[in-house]
Known about the structure:
This protein has two helices and five strands, in the order αβββαββ. The protein is of the alpha+beta class.
Amino acid sequence: MLLSKLAEQLVPICKAQGLNYDPRVLPVKLTADCYIVYATPKTDECSSQGKCEVNRYYALTGGKTIQIIHE
Length: 71
C-alpha cells in the first residue's frame, strides 16, 4: 500500500476517533500490516488553551478495515 494513499485513508478514521491527523506526515511501516502514525487528540485543553500533544498510534491494516490503536 502506498503511504500517501494510507495517509489519506487515515484522516476520516482518525477524525471519527477524536484525533487530528495530518496526512502530510506519512505513516511509518513497522510490519506487514502495522504502521506508526502520529496524531493529536481533540481535547478541550487543546482547543481552548493550545496545550496539544502529539501521540503515537498504530494503524492496523490487515483485514477489511483499518484500526487505530493507542500504545
